[in-house]
Amino acid sequence: MNAQMEAVKKKMSVLGKSAVTSREYRAALIKHLREAVPFDGACFTAVDPQTLLSTGAVTEEGIEAIHHSLFENEYLREDFNAYDLLVKADDPVATLHGATAGHLERSARYRNVLLPAGFGDELRAAIMYQGACWGYLTLFRSHTQPLFREDEREFISSLVQVIAFNLRKRSLALPFEESIGMEEEPGILILSDQLTILSSNVVADQWLSLLQKWECIDFPTLPRPVRAVCSRALSVTSTAVELASLAKVCIRIPEGPYLTIRASRLSGTSTTVHLIVWFEPAKPSDMLPLISEAYGLSDREKQILAHIVRGLSTKEIAHSLHISAYTVQDHLKSIFIKTGVTSRRELNWHLFSRFSVHRDK
């Protein structure tokens, strides 16, 4: 590894310890990476580790113009280096020229999106930590520039876990100012299959405006989380109804608590496809998987935490999970250590005050 790459690693170590938001961290990381691995465009998307859908992206200007086409290709087309496959790969970092054996034109994404925009090779990284994915990093090179080298791909691969660790940590960060209140009424948005807004209520308009402000995009560009759940909903066929539940993202916005965004196809007598999108305060069933992943809880610890939020006693939890009360207590001690509390009472207060987790009514 050359001196420049080592210098960038040191800068990233300092960045990881700094008190910046997820978006600020991703923007700064792109800047540092460019010093060691030259590229002509970048997109760094944070994702919900449960559904692998975007919760917001930092996208450079040259990529913003083709971002909608990249989304469509990712969710509605089969192509090389699909992110849902990189998540499952032994090495979650790959280049387009490597995947196509040097024949970029084999990729529809290259032919239809990248090349017309002046781009050539592409490097993709699924940002993985302890089996969970926290983001997607994509670097692009102009078609006039050299392909990504293997040592550059290996360098990005060596950074994946530390980047994911820092994204995970920032998913639990509290807002700097007092949180805004959640509207009780759901936001409702109706869109065409081309993701054109057809109608909306006032609450949906408020959420759209807030998300656009957060992502630094202008109206009428759809925020990435909305685009992601819609694209997932459009990809669900009548033979894959069970996937419809995955057209959902749980997101912690900087100015408030957790928000759930869901999308679904609308059916009717018309052959025209319409989509409905809901914006709602997240339920414990939406929040707890994300919070549990962020704290690095084991599968059994996640189950116990869910039971604690429901108000079950140690004896009731033991009976429900078919384990002894002593085993429950051992898992509780581990949960306390990972979440930084010392008792069940403090854990419940922590979940309520920090994340607004309360029992479902």
UniProtKB/TrEMBL annotation:
GO terms for biological process: negative regulation of DNA-templated transcription. Keywords: DNA-binding, Transcription, Transcription regulation. Coiled coil: none annotated. Gene3D superfamilies: 3.30.450.40, Winged helix-like DNA-binding domain superfamily/Winged helix DNA-binding domain (1.10.10.10). It comes from the Bacteria. It comes from Paenibacillus sp. SYP-B3998. This is LuxR family transcriptional regulator. InterPro entries: GAF-like_dom_sf (IPR029016), Sig_transdc_resp-reg_C-effctor (IPR016032), Tscrpt_reg_LuxR_C (IPR000792), WH-like_DNA-bd_sf (IPR036388). Residues 290-355 form the HTH luxR-type domain. The keyword Magnesium does not apply. The keyword Repeat does not apply. One of its GO terms (molecular function) is DNA binding. It holds the Pfam family GerE.
